[in-house]
Amino acid sequence: MLRKYLVAFMIAAVLTASIHTSQCYSPGCYTVAYYLLKSFNRSEQYKLNVAVTQSLYEYYCGLDHRQVSIRDFAKFVTPHPLKPIADKLWDIYSTHEDFANGVLMIVHQIPYNVTLPAKYPVETIVENVGDCDLFSYVAASIMKAGGLDVVLLYYPGKAHMNIAVHLPTAPRYARIPVRYVTYNGVRYYVAECTGGNWMEGWRVGECPEDLWQAECQIVSLEDCEKWAPGQVSASYKTLQPSAISLTLSSILVIHGSALTISGQLSPKLQNKAVAIYFRMGGSPWKALTIVKTDSEGKFSWTWIANETGVCQFKASWSGDDDYAGASSPTITVSVMSKFFLTIFITTVALVCMGLVIFLMATLGHRSVEEPELPRITY
Q1: What residue segments make up the domains of the chain, in order of their start?
Q2: Residue 306: left if φ>0, alpha if ψ -120 to 50, beta else—which one?
Q3: Closest CA relative to residue 34, chosen from 44, 20, 23
Q4: How far apart are CA 158 and CA 339, in angstroms?
Q5: Is the pLDDT of residue 266 over 90?
Q6: 6-219 topology per CATH
Q7: Residue 153: what pLDDT?
Q8: What is the pLDDT of residue 13?
Q9: CATH number belonging to domain 241-336
Q10: Distance from the CA of 230 to the CA of which of 41, 165, 322, 356 falls in 20 to 30 A?
Q11: Residue-wise DSSP of 307-346
């Protein structure tokens, strides 16, 4: 379906071979690197290092992945967690077209494989594999985070998806007749997200010929995700490792009582957002709250135990332009109901009383001396 540029592909393959997701130095963090061309007319390249905390990845793994109808597509577009990538692209690009083509270079470096069920962009970045819809979600998320007006294009007859983006002017770098769709009176230029040749891959305004006349459904992104508990970290520099610890005031609490959650970020960075995650038993992780670090890199928060059972907590920070994010070890807490506590205390009291009575009876019995029988001598 895609055109192949053999010579450029061989060059790109050498670079792409080093692009992989792996554990980084920071505890609970994954890293991946993407290459970018400054311009199609120049050979200057940038290497963008991206890090994702394990906590953020597990958060998205726990969200609803069902796609019942076309309306469910928009929920997989998540601009907020990918905004650091968009910010870094604006550092090297000055036009909407260049920015959009930079985004396409990124998704063209992710290996293709049919993937079910659908994945959120953070999952795709960590797992470093996907197909047309997953690549489209990643690309749309970054473009929307960068302030571009973008829509999803779904081709039912082709079982295919790509995106379209509004540009102030028609694309300059398209090598074939420009393709676009019109939605609400606005022209959106097609952007194909599949294809492994990132240096010579599809550019904004281009798409495979078999899609030129194909029926497509336009999916607007008003219903895309509006908030997330964390972000990826992105930098053209090598990200330095970081660490975060978590401590609780008790590992056994009573329902309705307060639990102090505190921790330490290393290095000691001030005013950094720390997400505290929570789950009951084996349920998916949920973001409990966001707190800020003080001048010593410390943070603290009070949680009221309104649920009973076995709870787990962990903390995470997203990282920044210098440091990769990190996740703390998980800490388990047992929350007891007041009724269960009353039964427990009553049971212990009764057992203790029974033990005391038993010991007193045993000692009393031993204190009564048996009469000595007369001895008979022969």
Answers
A1: 6-219, 241-336
A2: alpha
A3: 20
A4: 60
A5: yes
A6: C8orf32 fold (3.10.620)
A7: 98
A8: 35
A9: 2.60.40.730
A10: 165
A11: S-EEEEEEEEEEE-SSBEEEEPPPEEEEEE-HHHHHHHHH
